[in-house]
Specification:
mainly beta, transmembrane, 7 strands, two-stranded antiparallel ribbon, 93 residues, three-stranded mixed beta sheet
Amino acid sequence: MKDTYEAADFVNANNGSTNGFDLTKSHDRIIDPIFVSDSLEVKKYGLLTEAYYNCFPSDHFPVMGVIAWLFFLIWPLGAMVESIQNQHYCERF
């Protein structure tokens, strides 16, 4: 198991993951981790830090990760298994 913050190819986290409902304070502690299996690839990690009318909806920022996995094709009808060489992955964000 691995932490997406440490494993990501790209990280967008300029501060910690909590805000205490205060726009003026910041820290660098990431206390809201996303853990994934070692078999998955972590493309991106980010904290969504925007305020709405100078207010936060929570005392924690939303955490986002883009996770990729390799998949295999069975072709034709289970006769041959091929690994996809160009590493297709699914991005949901």
